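Extended Data, panel c. Modelled sequence:
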Amino acid sequence: MLKIRLSRQGRKGRPFYRVVLTEHTKPVKSSFMEVFGRFDPLAHKVEVDVAAVKSWIEKGAQLSERIAKILFKETKDVIFQKFFEERTRTAKTKKEAK
């Protein structure tokens, strides 16, 4: 199964990620078929070819949960929303935790 996911690049303490298409069984830092763009978590910049990602989704590729959330936040397109589940946090008091 083909998967669109993040591949870590950069040096220690200064990460950035490539958005890549790869086989889901391969290691994260191994070879990939296509690069769609990049994501810089420290500068909060996303540069992704969304049209290419959508075309690969139509061909059967799956998105990782993290990249689906990033693309949904940037584009607000519902096609990305089906790849992750919205979770609500409920704060527990100290008494409930015990």
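The beta strands are 2-11, 14-23, 34-40, 45-48, 62-63. This feature is highlighted in the accompanying rendering.
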